[in-house]
Amino acid sequence: MYMHSLSIADSHTHRRPRLHHPYRALFIVTFIAMDLVQLGFNPHVPGATFFGLAVSIALGALTYSFPIPASIVLILFNCVGEYIMRPYGQFTLFFFMMAATVIAYETTNRWAALTFFALIAYTAMEHVLMPDAMPISSVISYIIFFLLCILLGSFLRWNQERTALLRAALHDQAELRILRNNHLLAAQLHDTLSQDLAAMSLLAQSEAMTDPDNEAWHRMERYSTKTAADMRLLIRQLRDETAEGQGNPSTFASALHGEIHESEQLLADSGFSGTTDVHLDPDEVETGSTVLLALHEVYTNIYKHASQTAPYHVIVQTTDDGMVRIDSTNGTRPTEGAVVPGDNGLASLQTVLRDIGGDCDWSQDGERWHLEVSIPATREMTLVR
Questions:
Q1: Are 262 and 233 in contact (CB under 8 A)?
Q2: Could you tell me if 57 and 35 are in contact, meaning their C-beta atoms sit under 8 angstroms apart?
Q3: Angle of the 67-84 helix axis to the 47-62 helix axis, nearest 10
């Protein structure tokens, strides 16, 4: 295994260099090869012409690294060179075509059209100044060649852009599938673990208050509360809810806000609609962890049993007798008929809350279902049976 990993690392170290711009290289090689073939038919050219050809080939090679500047210089050099070095004019066409193709490929349709019309204007001027050397048939041929080069470069540029868009779309689709899978996993974690964790934490808290000297129940309460917090953090991470301050709430107020925001977002993403109203002073609540776990169970029950067509309404408030009261109203799913949607999770919550001086009760009125949870706001009140 160790030797195999070394061979893989060695293969990456000696990886062959990559050609980053294959189309540029194709243009350069093709048109320079055409000029060299032209030179092969007429090898006995003057030294000045041979020098001009060498300079143009060098400029053509530079278009790989500097496509636009080198192409412009190549066009200007050939425009002047065919008048200074008279026999050199037989090589200018292919260099014009190379520059036109590169400019059309590397820029936009506007610049490609501008290059095309500039080459047409230069060719027409040559016909006017030297009608014998540039007859009308040659002008038409040059125009056709330039047009084909412009269209070729523009098409390849469009194809490159389309390929980039397709790759981006495939990347976005892959990211969307990951987000959907994460959302599904978060929903499953939210649904399957919340009831057990809520029951464990509430039972442990109740027993710890009943027998304060029993360290085992205190440890169970800490561990179960931490596990519930870790699960909520995992759900936020899976759903990409990484807003600052949500990962580890230090106060009951921020924790309450995080629980409501997370649960409402989960319900909204699952097709539910509704509102949550909060009317309490967090500083007056000493049983914040119990309130959060009970509220978590309320939202879980809505997610599992409520109708998506009827909006839900949750109210969290303090009462004059020192209790935190959570009222939840929502529609029932038609498939559940007359079955009251209170299952083991609510039954466990009811048992634990009654042991600490609170209560959990539910009722159904037609297609509307109501849940009422009451929790002592202070730890002192939880010891009153």
A1: no
A2: yes
A3: 170
Q: What fold does the segment set 178-382 form as a domain?
A: Heat Shock Protein 90 (3.30.565)
**In the chain, at which residue ranges do the beta strands (DSSP E only) sit?**
274-279, 312-318, 323-331, 359-365, 368-376
Q: Which residues of the chain have pLDDT under 70?
A: 1-18, 171-172, 174-199, 201-202, 226, 229-251, 335-345, 379-385
Tokens at residue 20, please?
A: 């980053």
Residue 110 structure tokens: 């506007």
Q: CA–CA distance from 115 to each of 92, 101, 107 (Å)?
A: 16, 10, 11
CB-based contacts of 39, cutoff 8 Å, min separation 6: 45, 53, 91
By C-alpha distance, which of 38, 74, 36 is closest to 55? 74
- Classified as helix, coil or strand, 362 is strand
pTM of the model as a whole: 0.48
Q: Please state the separation of Cα 367 from the chain's center in Å.
A: 41
What does the DSSP 8-state code read for residue 306?
A: B
Nearest Cα residue to 198 out of 366, 349, 35: 349
Q: Which residues pair with 89 in a beta bridge?
A: none
Residue 252, number of CB atoms within 10 A of its CB: 19
Sheet containing 274-279: give its strands across. 274-279, 312-318, 323-331, 368-376, 359-365
Rounded Cα gap, residues 292 and 235, in angstroms: 16
pLDDT in tens, 90-135: 889 999 999 999 999 999 999 999 999 999 999 999 888 888 878 8
CA dihedral 57, 61, 66, 68 (to 10 degrees): 50
**Cα(246)–Cα(255) distance, integer angstroms:** 8
Place of tokens 């050099």: 77
Q: Where are the domains of the chain?
A: 19-134, 178-382
